[in-house]
Design goal:
This protein is of the alpha/beta class. It folds into two domains: 186 residues, 3-Layer(aba) Sandwich (Rossmann fold), CATH 3.40.50; 66 residues, no CATH class. 42% of the residues lie in helices and 21% in strands. The protein has a seven-stranded mixed beta sheet with strand order 4-5-6-3-7-8-9, sandwiched between helices. A two-stranded antiparallel ribbon has the order 1-2. The longest helix is centred in the last third of the chain and has 18 residues. Bound molecules: guanosine-5'-diphosphate and magnesium ion. Magnesium ion binds next to helix 1. This is Ferrous iron transport protein B. InterPro entries: FeoB_Cyto, FeoB_GTPase, G_FEOB_dom, P-loop_NTPase. GO terms for molecular function: ferrous iron transmembrane transporter activity; GTP binding.
Amino acid sequence: MGLTSQSTGIGVLENKLTIVKSTPVDKVIALAGNPNVGKSTVFNSLTGLNQHTGNWPGKTVTNAQGKYRHKDKNFIMVDIPGTYSLMANSVEEEVARDFVCFGQPDATVVVTDATCLERNLNLVLQTLEITNKVVVCVNLIDEAERKKIRIDYNKLSKHLGVPVIPTNARSSKGLGELMDAVYDISTKDITVHPIKITYDDIVEEAIEMVQPKIEDIAGEKISSRWIALKLLDGDNTLLESLNNFLGFNLLDNIELAGLVDTAKNIFPITV
Ligand SMILES: Nc1nc2c(ncn2[C@@H]2O[C@H](COP(=O)(O)OP(=O)(O)O)[C@@H](O)[C@H]2O)c(=O)[nH]1
Ligand SMILES: [Mg+2]
């Protein structure tokens, strides 16, 4: 901000969400989560008065961005819409999915509710299909303690293959540790090994048919496995966003279009 401020357009749909960075090395962090898990409380505790709100470009969905400094770096926290899934069944889900996938955040924090963790893990697993750079925040631990729910965070972290940090956002407990994990994931070249969701053999074979070609065309900027799943599923809103992100129509590639058709014909599946 001020004289040193600079804006970076992040390609989300046709329009750009403007992320205001103070320096080029600022890290962009997406804050995802089911509704009512304390996402805004985490966001407000971290960013305080350093925030501004607007709408997502072309959408009547509120967007809040805020700045937080941790150690030697600035983090731009982006409060993406609260959703139960990233299946794009609503505008909120579409915006959330597009930001996690095409906004290229340096990390995504998925805030979850410790009192009903299992239900929240759905969004965590969906996010992990799109990106490796994930930190899971298990919030409302005071409520869970009150209900005598005990969670083995280390075990959960080992299972998921990404950091899992317990927090009580209302009292700011654990937020330092949360930002330590975010710092490490977004600034260091650490390799995480997130859990891989494997589907039925028939789906896996279909993915195998189309994934290498997608990787050839789209490179490493997006998860080719996830795009393969979505192409097989015929998810049109995703295709639109993907083509905008890439700057060309993926299925204009005749070889890929052929492979997708063949895979769909051989394996008539809905994933
Ligand atoms: N007890 C407790 N309440 C919390 C915690 N985090 C958030 N809350 C409360 O949970 C409610 C929903 O929080 P909010 O941040 O609006 O959730 P969001 O919908 O995910 O943005 C609010 O009343 C918060 O004060 C927490 O760690 N412990
Ligand atoms: Mg909120």
